[in-house]
Amino acid sequence: MFGKGLITGMGITIRHFFGKKATFCYPEEKLTMTEHFRGGHLTIDYKKCIACQLCAIQCPNQAIKLKVVTDANRKRHLESYVHSMGRCLYCDLCIEGCAPHALSWDKDYEISTWHKEDLVHQVMTDEDRSYLAEVMTQAAANPTPPPVPKAAPKPAAAAPPAAKPADTEVKPRE
Amino acid sequence: MPQTETYILNMGPQHPSTHGVLRVNLELDGEKILRATPMMGYLHRGIEKLLESRTYIQGVPYTDRLDYVSSMNNNFGYCRAVEELAGIEVPARAEYIRVIMAELNRIASHQVFIGSLANDLGASTGMLYTFRDREEILDLFDLVCGARMTFHYIRVGGVARNLPPEFAEKCRKFLDRVPEFTEEYANLLMGNEIFQRRLKGVSRLTPEQALAHNMTGPNIRATGIPFDLRKVDGYSVYPQFAFEVPVGENGDNWDRFRVRFREITESARIVRQALEGLPEGPVMAKFPKMLKPPKGEVFSRTEGTRGELGFYIVSDGTAKPYRVHIRRPSFINMQALDDMCRGYLIGDSVVAFSAIDPLMGEVDC
Fold first, then answer.
1. Mean pLDDT of the region A152-169
2. Which one of A14, B170, B305, B364 is separated from A106 by 20 to 30 angstroms, measured CA to CA?
3. Which residues in chain A are closer than 8 Å to B192, comparing Cβ atoms?
4. Per-residue pLDDT for A172 more than 60?
5. Searching chain A, which residue's CA lies closest to the CA of residue B188?
6. What is the pLDDT of residues A81-93, one digit of tens each?
7. Which residues of chain B neighbour A37 with C-beta distances below 8 Å?
8. Ramachandran assignment for A104, one of left (phi > 0), alpha (psi -120 to 50 degrees), beta (any other)
9. Nearest-CA distance B305 → chain A (Å)
């Protein structure tokens, strides 16, 4: 009979019309993100970070720009850490590459902005900056003497790049 | 006797039925199509060149963006090519997880196909049903990798992380629902007379024509040629699973729809078997972090959701590939659009386009 298929189809529609809703009211009700959710702003546990720059090296699209400063004890610290969310692929390579597990996502999925400039996210907080200033002054106040070079120093690998007193900035790869 | 002449109609690039940005030049005689020329390139991002300027491992997230409806299959294809090039042995558990993910993604992709085909035919309701069920697969992916699109879960050497403990149970729950929702689609769409009349006998292709166009995937299977790389090449752990390759008879739009519709059930069968036989062990092979494959070239092909997805990679021994070429099934299948449209009406061109199921991200690459 012509039209039988139509009626069967309408039957399904009617059944769902009186059935359970598949949707929910979004701004009032919100989803909780899963454990491994990749998205939102990049956050850094500043005290854990060893400023190894691996996250910036791993990034396929140079979304992470960071500056490293060396204190009087030749220890490296982050001076600034910028995450360009517009460039980010949210591929998770930076977080997986982070050896001390200092990086994470804040899982906030409402990250759309009105302007392109707002997508540039300063990852370091004011608290982190004051902590950095504190560490720098402390190190300057009581510097530990540099380790006495051994009779047979290990080449290359043993010499940390932190030996450079000046600030180093990760340059974008060609 | 009045003189008539043909005229050119420009369809797209911003047309709701072109699934992205495709422009088709239609040469018309009244309502009848004499020639259809697809004009591509509106979504070109130069992914091949992007892959050449990144290391092998950094390239994987870019393959997500080729065919963004079935990213897992793209990751799978690229990673297999790199592994073949570098001679990396993938652990058995990782292979099983990869097959589970690829097949789940195939189901999700075919659901998008059914939904968008229904939408192009004017049955917007059909789209909502398939997208509702696709959510469940996306939730599963979200659970394992933390993303609902652009998964970047299958990596060179294995997979990103082990399956969470609750995955198997949730996946089985979804698989139990497969017969339920396929029946619903069948009742809602396949039984519908309008749906059948719009598809049956329209845009027919003979096996010879399909072969001449080098079509692959469900499009060639609809013409009756059982060409499925999962059977033909038997790559990864596919030979260990029992599944059938659905084929069509007439090579018309109805068969293209039917083949994909039946593939959903077959893919669900594969996932169920893979979940049963999932071995324990590591999910990532051991290889140096800065991967430098030896000099050489490789062409590795897998069965993507839209056909034969091939990656041709040339290595010059450095950390970055010297050349990457991607054989995108959508791009090649699209060439048959002209043959499929000739002699039919404008409304059928939209259906023909939808039945090929190309994805513009992959066509333009």
1. 49
2. B170
3. 5-6, 9
4. no
5. A9
6. 999 988 898 888 8
7. 142, 146-147
8. beta
9. 22
Instruction: Note every long-range contact of A11-14, with CB atoms under 8 Å and residues 24 or more positions apart, other chains counting.
Output: A11/B187, A12/B184, A12/B187, A12/B188, A13/B125, A13/B188
What is the average pLDDT score of chain B?
89
- Identify whether A60 is preceded by a cis peptide bond (ω within 30 of 0): no
- Residues B136/B213, Cβ–Cβ less than 8 Å: no
What is the residue extent of each domain of chain A? 35-141+165-169
For B101-145, write each residue's pLDDT tens digit.
999 999 999 999 998 888 888 888 888 888 889 999 999 999 898
The predicted-structure confidence for B67-111, as pLDDT tens digits, reads as follows 888 899 999 999 999 999 998 999 999 999 999 999 999 999 999
Minimum Cα–Cα distance from B181: chain A residue:
A12
Pick the CATH number of B7-364 from 3.40.50.720, 3.40.50.300, 3.40.718.10, 1.10.645.10: 1.10.645.10
Asked if B145 lies within 8 A of A4 by C-beta distance, the reply is no
B274, B171 Cβ separation under 8 angstroms: no
Q: Characterize B248-270 residue by residue with b for buried, 16 or more Cβ atoms within 10 angstroms of its Cβ, and e for exposed.
A: bebbbbbbbbbbbbbbbebbbbb
State the nearest Cα–Cα gap between A52 and chain B, in angstroms: 16
Q: Count the neighbouring beta carbons within 10 Å of the beta carbon of residue B75.
A: 28
Residue B312 has pLDDT above 90, yes or no: yes
The CATH architecture of the domain made up of A35-141+165-169 is 2-Layer Sandwich (3.30)
ipTM for the complex shown: 0.78
